[in-house]
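Write out a sequence, fold above all:
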Amino acid sequence: MIRRLLWLGLALGPLVIALDATSAASKTFLFALAALSLVPLAWLIGEATEHVARHTGAGIGGFLNATFGNAPELIIALFAVSNGLTGVVRGSLTGSIVSNLLLVLGASLVVGRNGKIDRVSSFTWLALVSLSVLLFLIPAALAWTGQSSRHVTALSSVPISIALLVCYLVVAWRALRRHHLLHVSDLPERIEAWSLPLSLTTLAAATVVTAFVAEIVVGTIDAFAKHAHLSEFFVAAVIVAIAGNAAEHGGAVVVASRGHVKLASEIALSSAAQVAVFVIPAVALVSWLIKPLALSFRPVEIVALALSTALVGVLLAQGRSSRLRGGALLAGYGMLVIAFFLAGR
């Protein structure tokens, strides 16, 4: 049933593009529809990369999943950079990490069964997120003190981004291979793989449509924020972050509901780490081709990342899952959403 809805939802992407081209809808409506259309598009990108991985092998497949699985966040961020919406960029990426750590993992533990999780793998991903938070403090502190220009802050973000990408490649290569193999072997009801040309064509088409839709999301976020009486930061950190990851989020929860809590927690934590040490550094480096982006996160963003990582670490320290732990993570996410709302006022 869910797959059918996702297939039907793919029609939203072309519809949004057509409405934008003909100016047949208000910007507020366009933002809502465009954000919703990202859900099936993100799902299709993930589906296509999984089918490609069946032909290329686990190693290349894992790399493709890490790269294209985060395509919506990357594309939205780059369009926001080109429009000068640096607060939207940082907010959406921060929100993506926090929602993976607290919302997705929390929901997965609530709907799943009590049991064990992979403690070593979980803390490997958490260590990567923790490292990124510590390094983000450097350009953030420079911006907070006001002792350096925006250009100097952006320059300080370059070596940090390179260091994070290197750490990601070194630590995540084998973990991604393992995650892909686990994903393929543990899930029931697998379908026959598409041909490689069909998989690559689908992946390319979905990515192109996502790029057009992402441009519409970025172009209408200001109108939606004003109409809803919300700050752009809050819309980016909560609404855009959830929409860009919705398909992956839903997949983790469905997996957990089938009794595979270990795999669901792996998906949530690895996704958070990928955004922290792959997507953010990649955006910071590619942004130099457009407008240099400084990783000068707000204090509320750094605190949110640190608290989210610490809360997950404390609750998963014993390597066990439970509905109570999931509820605590969801409560933590609710409090951070309130913090984002207040910070944007």
Notes: Confidence is low (pLDDT under 50) at residues 179-190. Residues 2-343 form a domain with the A middle domain of Talin 1 fold (CATH 1.20.1420.30). The radius of gyration is 19 Å.
